[in-house]
Write a structure and sequence with these properties.
Number of strands: 4
Distance between the termini: 24 Å
Largest sheet: 4 strands, antiparallel
Length: 106
Amino acid sequence: MSADHVVVITTVDSEAAARTLAASAVEARLTACAQIVGPITSVFRWEGEVQTAAEWRIECKTAADRAGALEEFLNVRHTYDVPEVVVMPITGGSPRYLEWLVEETR
């Protein structure tokens, strides 16, 4: 299934980093809206050990044709060695919101 709109998710290690990354992605017109959720607790395996860390999740709503550029943008500016960047399709929603989402990413 093809989606015209997506949510791109990443996590960072501080609220300040989340605000900076979110604002810069909106300013670059790679996302129409970036919501910051946190702090959240992440449990993951890194370098052979199970670790726990506080993180802030950034949920970026964008047009599907901007997802690749947004992913590259996030990877370049991210401080993690292997940043989480997950793209999820939006399969429905308010037509007015989805139109606005596309307009704001142009």
